[in-house]
Amino acid sequence: MSSELKARLQHSSAVAGFVLICVVIYWQCFTDLAAQDAASGGAQYNAAFVPELLSGFLIALCMLQLVRVWFGNGFRESEDTLPDELDADAPVEDAVTYEDDENFGLVLRAILCVGLIAVFILVLPYLGYYVAMPLLLIAVLVTLGSRNPLTVVALAIGLTLIVGYVFGGLLNVVLPPGFLEIEPW
Fold first, then answer.
1. Collapsing DSSP states into helix, strand and coil, what is residue 88?
2. Structural domain tally of the chain?
3. N or C end: fewer C-beta atoms under 10 angstroms in the chain?
4. What residues does the DUF1468 domain cover (predicted)?
């Protein structure tokens, strides 16, 4: 398999992951939120309005990215893409650089974050916003490299309460209460 085809397939896989998230969001909007009668009415009382809008926008961006990956010229191999320390006659497949390992780690972290968000969306109706959101934030912060437990927990709880107050208290958006039925505002 050529390196160009391999790069195109890797990029397409990442885009497919984002499309999968959008499909899960639409599934949530048309099943769980509809069953809770939270997916009808005007924008202020429709908990599905913003997720549907953002998912549609993300799907459109994903389609543009797929067109760029498969029909654009961003994946042409050229001599100037080789690292400086390599001989121009040496095969690219034999060259392993630290940059490749670093990029792989960044891609892996991004994929893990996408997976965490997908899990968050699936458990949100059962756990509720005020339980699921801090767990998501803690997992994402640790995945992205935060190591101070006090900072991670404080940031997760603080952001959950602030965002919950803005959406639940000020904007009157119905946040999923979960099995504990937590609705502070």
1. coil
2. 1
3. N
4. 15-176
What is the 3-state secondary structure of 110-177?
A: HHHHHHHHHHHHHHHHHHCHHHHHHHHHHHHHHHCCCCCHHHHHHHHHHHHHHHHHHHHHHCCCCCCC
CB 51 within 8 A of CB 42: no
In a domain, 136, yes or no: no
Amino acid identity, residue 80? D
Task: Centre a 10 Å sphere on the Cβ of residue 129 and count the other Cβ atoms it contains.
Answer: 23
- Taking phi over 0 as left and psi of -120 to 50 as alpha, with beta for the rest, 145 belongs to left
pLDDT tens, position by position, 4-43: 787 778 778 877 877 887 788 777 777 776 677 666 666 5
Asked, for residue 87, whether it belongs to a domain, the answer is: no
The whole-angstrom separation of Cα 65 and Cα 4 is 16
Domain that holds residue 51: 1-75
Strand, coil or helix: 77: coil
The pTM of the full predicted model, rounded to 2 decimals, is: 0.56
